[in-house]
Every structure is written in structure tokens, then in C-alpha cells.
Design brief:
heterodimer, A: mainly beta, seven-stranded mixed beta sheet, four-stranded antiparallel beta sheet, about 50% strand, globular, B: about 110 residues, six-stranded mixed beta sheet, five-stranded antiparallel beta sheet, 11 strands
Chain lengths: ~110, ~110
């Protein structure tokens, strides 16, 4: 039982390049989330998926797209990376069918955009 | 919308007790969560309060007052390994969406 797995762990991009961050969970969770974390800013929600086939914008969605490929996988895409997207990205998931506050986080992706 | 306020830093000595506060503003309230994050690591869930009062789990306790829109996390018998950032979080309005909004966190430094 690996929990929430994110890849890659580190990535350096040049401005304008694109990339996709991958996330998979093996806990049969319905809901999945993408957060970014910047120094002094806490965790800010980018996009979330309440269930397979649905996605919704969070607090800071601009410059990102997401795909809920199936129940296990939720990817985050940067189409044209900008230096302002330099951050640590966390994927998270939680249990289905309950009002439950416990999020399970992946280990994060440290992204630098030059 | 929602907003949460936390002090940015707290310093305490090993063996002591420390309280970290969180005040929030929400248009609908379902409960207050707390997460711990060590430097370079991922956030991990600590506790959740849906009702007023104190919830205790070992050395950690979390308190909620819904009338005051206020909560705190209490750590007793501090250990060096407790040095970390602590975030409070509330669920966004909309109930079933179950998405969490986080505060900016309190950095706890435990000194010997």
C-alpha cells in the first residue's frame, strides 16, 4: 500500500516549456486534489476532483489544467511554464462517501521554472 | 469566501507546553483540521474538531470554539522532533465538495 505517489520529485523547466505532474493513489479514494506551496503562503488549492470524471477550480487555477484519468490517477499540466509557477506541488486524496477532513498527501514535486 | 489566520512563528523549549492559535472566517463552517509538516516533507493529518471543546490524542490536543471562530492546537511535553510547521484548515462552503482551505501555518521551533 503505497498511499499517494507523485512523479517526478524534482523538475527544472525553462519558461514556456510544458510538463505534466503525475499523481496516483491506491486507497480507493474518490476525491483528489492538487495544491501548491510557496514560502509564507501555506498550501493553496489549484484544482480538485470530487470523483472520477469531474474536476473543479480551486483558489489558484490559472496556468494549469488537470485530468482525472481514472479513479486512481489525477494529473496536473503546465502548458507554458512561467517563473511564477516555481513552487512545491502536492497531490492529495481522501476517503469516499463521508464528510471527512483527513487528506493523505504525496511527497511533493519541487518545480523550478527558469 | 474563507480566510484563516495563524501566527507565523512560535518558539518553545523542550519539555514545555505550546499553544498555536487559528482564527477563521467562513460563510459556512463544518470543522477545523490541523496538519503537521516537517521541513522538506509532506503535510500529515493531526486532528479534526467539528464540535466545540477539546480533542486529545496523546501529547496533542485541539480545541474549537465555533462562537468565537477560533481554535488552537496544544502540544505538551515538547520534543525536538515537534519542530515543524502546523497548519489549520477549514472546508470550503459547499459541503459535499469536501475541499480544504489552509492557513499560512505556524513555524514551531523547539529549543533544547
Amino acid at each position: 500500500n503505497a498511499g499517494v505517489t507523485q512523479t517526478p520529485k524534482f523538475q527544472v523547466l525553462k519558461t514556456g516549456q510544458s510538463m505534466t505532474l503525475q499523481c496516483a493513489q491506491d486507497m480507493n479514494h474518490n476525491s483528489m486534489y492538487w495544491y501548491r506551496q510557496d514560502p509564507g503562503m501555506g498550501l493553496r488549492l489549484i484544482y480538485y476532483s470530487a470523483s472520477e470524471g469531474t474536476t473543479d477550480k480551486g483558489e489558484v487555477p490559472n496556468g494549469y489544467n488537470v485530468s482525472r484519468l481514472n479513479k486512481r490517477e489525477f494529473s496536473l499540466r503546465l502548458e507554458s511554464a512561467a517563473p511564477s509557477q516555481t513552487s512545491v506541488y502536492f497531490c492529495a486524496s481522501n476517503r469516499p462517501g463521508r464528510i471527512n477532513e483527513k487528506l493523505f498527501f504525496g511527497s511533493g514535486t519541487q518545480l523550478s521554472v527558469l | 469566501g474563507q480566510s484563516l489566520e495563524q501566527p507565523s512563528e512560535v518558539t518553545a523549549v523542550e519539555g514545555a507546553i505550546v499553544q498555536m492559535n487559528c482564527t477563521y472566517q467562513t460563510s459556512g463552517f463544518y470543522g477545523l483540521s490541523w496538519y503537521q509538516q516537517h521541513d522538506g516533507g509532506a503535510p500529515t493529518f493531526l486532528s479534526y474538531n467539528a464540535l466545540d471543546g477539546l480533542e486529545e490524542t496523546g501529547r496533542f490536543s485541539s480545541f474549537l470554539s465555533r462562537s468565537d471562530s477560533y481554535g488552537y492546537l496544544l502540544l505538551q511535553e515538547l520534543q525536538m522532533k515537534d519542530s515543524a510547521s502546523y497548519f489549520c484548515a477549514v472546508r470550503d462552503q459547499g459541503g459535499a465538495t469536501n475541499k480544504l482551505i489552509f492557513g499560512t501555518g505556524t513555524l514551531l521551533a523547539v529549543q533544547p
